[in-house]
Amino acid sequence: xxxxxxxxxxxxxxxxxxxxxxxxxxxxxxxxxxxxxxxxxxxxxxxxxxxxxxxxxxxxxxxxxxxxxxxxxxxxxxxxxxxxxxxxxxxxxxxxxxxxxxxxxxxxxxxxxxxxxxxxxxxxxxxxxxxxxxxxxxxxxxxxxxxxxxxxxxxxxxxxxxxxxxxxxxxxxxxxxxxxxxxxxxxxxxxxxxxxxxxxxxxxxxxxxxxxxxxxxxxxxxxxxxxxxx
Length: 230
Prior knowledge:
By secondary structure, the chain is mainly alpha-helical. It is built from 7 helices and 3 strands, in the order ααβββααααα.
């Protein structure tokens, strides 16, 4: 029985299950708390506009974009972009997501160090994500183990980016909850739903880190097996 192959296969399955589990959790939480309307009745757009204006960020635009949970803050264009459901929605989830993206805008204003570090890594990560698996594929096909190591190093760069992303996302959620409390956007009972929603979103980033660590370990095992054969 080839236990090495079984371990490699098991790691691949675990990685997939972690990713799927995190995605199912956030979708379930989002679906639940989108249906529960907040007492104040603010839309995601109104929530974002309130938080931005009260933090001297009137220059930041709030725009509607297509896609499911495609919400993000664009620091280069100074714009909070909310998916259609969150832009117009009045549910606890809609308000929470909008507040989270405003948390990133406040980070940008305050020159939050981890946000700057993450931004500096983006060009390297974009290159690594494209080159990594090409190097691994060619290395395995051609028996060029040096190329496999290049691919593994690219995965390590991606892992570094994901680790740096964690404090950025957790801090944005913390800021969001503080602003929601301060401006009484949600009441005390609704706030628990907001926390659940933002925690679910944060766990997707934790899952990405875990999956990448497993993938790096799996690639090293694959490299070791091929090296032993040679």
